[in-house]
Structures are given as structure tokens and as C-alpha cells.
Design goal:
It holds the Pfam family Lactamase_B. This is Metallo-beta-lactamase domain-containing protein. One of its GO terms (molecular function) is metal ion binding. Keywords: Hydrolase, Metal-binding, Zinc. InterPro entries: MBL_superfamily_lactonases, Metallo-B-lactamas, RibonucZ/Hydroxyglut_hydro. By secondary structure, this protein is mainly β. The protein has a single domain, classed as Ribonuclease Z/Hydroxyacylglutathione hydrolase-like (Metallo-beta-lactamase, Chain A), CATH 3.60.15. Helices cover 14% and strands 36% of the residues. It contains five helices and 17 strands. The protein has an eight-stranded mixed beta sheet, with helices on one face. A seven-stranded mixed beta sheet has the order 10-11-12-13-15-16-17. The N and C termini lie close together (11 Å).
Length: 269
């Protein structure tokens, strides 16, 4: 992976013939007590939260990759105007990176939570991506997507997938169960690297890389999410796979290495 450029809300990298961007949709502050030990006791971060001892700040990241202006895919699209005003800034990040929203024809969603899907619309209800023709989504996440009434117009664009489905010769859907129904990762194989866009595998990187057994109260099934995290972190460390996570600290993409009983994250920046 080669570093190309960085602005406040966008990081550009290259891997072989591919370009990969990390794009910030903003951040959200959530209760630190949502981090839990396996026995459901409240967890503590290994580093203090960024604002105070009651909240932990989660970055909200989206990712885009393409090859020579073709095969362009946006992974997740942020919160739009559906949540806190600290989110919904994907358009600004894309402008910083010089990416025209009309160039996006395919979005791949990791799951159907609002901070990943509602950025399909502007706060006043207009489509963000005017030329969008396909929305890849886990089959079990379709129901959650359609539960958002404002997104009903996108139903004809939905293309459900399951783990193991190959979207193209370079892109594989990877099931990451536990956090949400149909939670899906996407593994990109370039000429040089493998990059796993892993959605909400990790919520609090300062704690969960060192202690992968720590869970998050917003996980649909904490025990399954824990097992997924432990397995995928081990696989990524062994295979030297790059991880790109929705809530990893900006820029949200890097590699992990074994560090004692846990892991250390080495950012691409």
C-alpha cells in the first residue's frame, strides 16, 4: 500500500493498479459503558476517551476504491442527516478527494444501521448519487434496510449477497456475523495486497485490538460478534491483510500485528 495524499477528511492510497480512499463521514460520541467484558461487566478503555470519562468517540468512515476509473465501489455511505450533526459529512470528504458523487454507480453496504445507509439521501431527501445503479447488501440485512421508510425508493437497486459470493474477480463478500443481521465485509484483492473492509468488526480500537474479547452493547449478539472479531483479527495478522473499519480511528485503514495477548494497529497514515 502506497500513501498518496491526505486532507482533513480524506486519505488516498494506491495498491497495484487500484486507488483506495478513506473518507470521513464525521464522528459520534457514545457511552463508554457500552464497552463490555465477556461477563457483561462494564469495560474500561486502555486509553481515556477523547472528550470525557463518560463518552467514547467513534470515527465514522466510508471507503471507496477503483481501478483506472472503472470498477468503482463505495463501501457504506454514512449517516446523512439522520443522526448527530457531527456526522453526515461524506460529501465534503469526497469533494476534498476530488471525487464527483455522480461517478458512484455502486455502493456496497456492510449492514443496515443508520450510520451506514442513510447517506444515500441528503438531509432534505434528495439522492446523493444520481447515477447509482446497484446497492450490494447482505441478504439478511435487506429487511433492516427496507425498514427505513425514506429509503424505499432504493428497493429496485438492492442486490443481496451472502458470505462467499464473488462480486467480481477481485471482490469477495465475507460474512462477519454478530454485530447486525447480514453484517458483511468485502475483501478486495489488488495486484499487491488484500484489503478487508470490515464494517463494525471493531468499535473502540483503543480497547478492542488489545482485548478482542471486549464486546459492544450495540452488537446484535455479543458472543457471536466476539468470536467473529477474534477469528478475523487472527486471520488478518497471519495473512498481513489490511483492515478498513467503519469506526477505526481516522483514517481507519491499516494493518495489525500480534502484540502480547492481543494486537496492535498500524495506521496507513
Amino acid at each position: 500500500m502506497e500513501f498518496l495524499s491526505q486532507s482533513p477528511n480524506a486519505l488516498g492510497c494506491a495498491s497495484g493498479s487500484w486507488k483506495i480512499w478513506s473518507l470521513s463521514d464525521g464522528h459520534v460520541d457514545l457511552p463508554a459503558e457500552s464497552l463490555r467484558y465477556p461477563d457483561n461487566k462494564i469495560g474500561r478503555q486502555t486509553e481515556p476517551p477523547q472528550r470525557d470519562d463518560l463518552l467514547v468517540r467513534l470515527s465514522v468512515n466510508c471507503f471507496l476504491f477503483d481501478r483506472s476509473g472503472i470498477d468503482r465501489v463505495l463501501i457504506d455511505c454514512g449517516a446523512g442527516g439522520s443522526w448527530e450533526p457531527s456526522m453526515g459529512h461524506l460529501g465534503e470528504a469526497m469533494a476534498e478527494a476530488g471525487i464527483d458523487t455522480s461517478s458512484i454507480t455502486m455502493v456496497a453496504l456492510t449492514h443496515a444501521h443508520g450510520d451506514h445507509i442513510n447517506g444515500l439521501l441528503t438531509p432534505d431527501g434528495r439522492r446523493v448519487f444520481n447515477n447509482l445503479s446497484k446497492i450490494v447488501i447482505g441478504e439478511d440485512a435487506v429487511e433492516g434496510f427496507l425498514a427505513e421508510p425514506n429509503l424505499a425508493e432504493f428497493r429496485p437497486l438492492l442486490a443481496p449477497v451472502n458470505g462467499g459470493d464473488r462480486l467480481a474477480d477481485h471482490l469477495l463478500a465475507v460474512a462477519i456475523p454478530g454485530h447486525a443481521p447480514g453484517h458483511m465485509g468485502y475483501l478486495l484483492g489488488t495486484d499487491e495486497d488484500e484489503i478487508l473492509f470490515c464494517g463494525d468488526l471493531i468499535h473502540v480500537p483503543a480497547a478492542q485490538f488489545a482485548r478482542p474479547e471486549l464486546t459492544w452493547a450495540y452488537d446484535d449478539d455479543e458472543s457471536i460478534a466476539r468470536a467473529s472479531r477474534i477469528k478475523l483479527l487472527q486471520n488478518a495478522a497471519d495473512a498481513h491483510t489490511w483492515l478498513a473499519g467503519a469506526h477505526l480511528d481516522r483514517p481507519g485503514i491499516g494493518r495489525i500485528v500480534k502484540d502480547g495477548q492481543g494486537y496492535a494497529f498500524i495506521s496507513a497514515a
